[in-house]
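User: Batch of two.

Assistant: Item 1 of 2:
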Amino acid sequence: MKLFVFGDSYVDTGNYFTSPSYKLPYGITFPGKPSGRFSDGRVLTDYVASFLNIKSPRPYSLKKSSELQYGMNFAYGGTGVFHTLIDGPNMTVQIDTFEKLIQQNVYTKPDLQSSISLVSAAGNDYLKFFVKNGRSTKGVSKFTASLVKQLSLNLKRIQSLGINKIAIVLLEPIGCLPIATENTSYEKCNGTLNTVAMNHNHLLLQAVEELNKEIGKSVFVTLDLFNSFLSTIASMQRNHEANSTLMNPLQPCCVGVSSSYYCGSVDEKGAKKYSVCDKPGLSFYWNNFHPSQNGWHAVYKRVQSSLRKIEDKNL
């Protein structure tokens, strides 16, 4: 059983060497030091791997021939389906890299037939869209259609390379990310942005249904991050209201000391320009964009039933 991972920082476990994820305070919960995960600890990939009873697959940038038995992680923080605000390998390039490994017989047909793929992309595509359009949603539905169309082609391509079980994440409620709620002092989610995510997911669910129909069996399974985030946030909000010592789930654990700094920032003298909450284990968000390990664990528990569908196909 191997796991092949494509996408962005929600599933990257160490491919982006020059990112903050390789600096403190990232990784303080697990593995105890920065490891290239965009969190204080484990991310979605780690939980999916544990569900499959394997070790988290090795990041492609750190690949060693001795550690190929669990698959490979091609995901790269900040990237998307298309080109994004960072210069990293988008999903097409990640799949190209995977294809080269197959051509080099690093992975064989039987290897792939018993493998699973995890795909998480689109958040950074929307980030670029909104940065370029001055936060306006004008033209966003056309953008969503082109995005889902390309994502669908990517999924089909992963399947055509020999993987018969593919889990694709639905877009999270982007209006609940701290970057979108800080202007309300982390009090409420941005409904307009969440509607964009809902429309994206609606189209993606249709595309996945069509792909499964085309192939004649359910190769593709969706992991509903949208509702998993919302229901986790709602239950944490209720707990926070009942006990104010618990964290407001919309508030990030790690933040820059001012708007010119971010989680992991240091000044030219090396002094840290960020603060970390007392108990990351009580937070939902680690920073402005990413869940903490605690957040990911709660989300993972809510998508487990979908992961079981993949496992059933394995029997």
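Item 2 of 2:
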Amino acid sequence: MGGLRAEYGGPQIGPHIPLAGSLRLTREAALANRSDLCLRAFVTKVDSVVTRVSYCHPVALVFHLPEEVEMETGVDFNLWNPPLPHMSLLYGHLTEEERKKAQEKVYILDESIISLSFLVTHIALYQTNYKDKTLRS
């Protein structure tokens, strides 16, 4: 993340993996549903390194969720978008050419990134302001 930010700029972001995107719920309804998200620990693995035309994830790792986790997280959160577990490696407005170069740089910085896997033991529910490009919210 630091290597990409040094070359392409953007705000410093802490590593995080959203399991679900924008929710169309009130805060109260989301908090009421969170008790349904008591999961057993599971292992996730990097599926791919992708680029997108998006400020929040122009270059990101996409993670594979085990099938039993997908079924267990079947809570109706009234999502705007289908779940796509990912970790943004960089935030910023990049051209298509910059995104492709940044994607290549990910493999240069860490050849083994595609084999990354780890144990997930906790999840959290956050409310953020997606318009806040400073990430202070």
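The helical segments are 2-8, 27-33, 67-72, 96-109.
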